[in-house]
Design goal:
Blueprint lengths: L20 H13 L1 H6 L19
Length: 59
Amino acid sequence: MFTDLTGDFNRVILEYEAANIGEFEANMKRYATDEAFREKMKGYTDLYSTGSREILTVV
């Protein structure tokens, strides 16, 4: 994990591997509806004031 000292909030960078963007999107939808996953992540983003997502491709 890296901490960005210049932004509005601490930046959390997660590395995620997927065969393609479709697989990534399907997993994000599954996470959004998986109650066990949601319970595990409960409270994780409560202190965030803003946020964004970047999707990068490594070639």
